[in-house]
Amino acid sequence: MTHTFGDVRWRKLGEPGNPPVVLCHGTPFSSYVWRAVARVLARHYEVFLWDMPGYGSSAMFDGQDVSLAAQGRVFADLLDHWGLTEPLVVAHDFGGAVSLRAHLLHGARYRALALVDPVALAPWGSPFFRLVGANSAVFEQLPPALHRALVREYVSSASSKGLHPDVLDKLVEPWLGDPGQGAFYRQIAQSDQRFTDEIQGRYGEIDMPVLVCWGEDDTWIPIAKGHELVSLIPGARFEPIAGAGHLVQEDAPAELAAALLDFLPRNA
């Protein structure tokens, strides 16, 4: 799909006509992290995967707006493009904020929403995020080898078990070279807590089944945030995932898929 924020790359798995499930990734990742869970869900659902503008295989360019505000609008437009009026949505990390903004601010409706270690509650943003955000122009000038080492270390820290080298390579590759290096620091520089502050007070309005999954060993966003979020969403269920860090899809894909299959309705 071509959008004012850039081309959006997406794909589908599963049988057309099955209940639709949309998987939303976070930062600094792409739809690639959903590959194992998507294959499981595709046995029962039509699964939609997409890369946010500025991520993965979607468009990256200087001056691009990749803020959470932009991504929320893109997601609402993408659902319209697909003709999905009330899909099931599963969203990780920044994707959580994107799906919540699309619902609360842009009128996107979901049949059910599963949030996996989402960015949703203040305060968020690590010291690394704040350092890069304040000095993104400097970081963009890093020699390629230093930039590559920085990104590999940062992505690796999302997993509590450690990532397979091939998986780490796949997650890091979009951020290398031109335009990847600039895009990596751009998305951090535009990560502003005000985009969740705008909606945090409205979580009590959410009127749909909600599941909140959380890796028990998440060092990026502590599991206490999961308990706090559940307390703010009427009727929300909480599912801790043992042995998983922030990147639950890589650390415990079978456990996450089982939790989602238990939660998501099977009938259209």
Q: What does this protein look like?
A:
With 268 residues, this protein is α/β, with parallel strands linked by helices. It is built from 12 helices and 7 strands. Strand 6, helix 10 and strand 7 form a beta-alpha-beta unit. The longest helix has 15 residues. The protein is globular, with a radius of gyration of 17 Å. The protein starts with 9 loop residues before the first strand and ends in a 5-residue tail after the last helix.
**Unreliable residue stretches:** none
For the sheet with most strands, the description reads: 7 strands, mixed
- Beta-strand percentage range: 5-15%
Taken from the alpha-carbon principal axes, the silhouette is: globular
How far the N terminus sits from the C terminus, by CA atoms, comes to 25 Å
Give the class from helix and strand content and strand pairing.
Answer: alpha/beta
Question: Average pLDDT across residues?
Answer: 96
**Helix content, binned percent:** 40-55%
- SS element count, helices: 12
Count the E strands.
7
What keywords describe this structure?
268 residues, 7 strands, alpha/beta
Briefly say what this structure is.
This protein is an alpha/beta fold. It has helices spanning 35-41, 68-82, 94-106, 127-134, 136-139, 144-156, 165-172, 177-189, 194-200, 223-232, 248-251, 253-263; strands at residues 10-13, 20-24, 46-50, 88-92, 112-116, 210-215, 237-241. The relative contact order is 0.16.
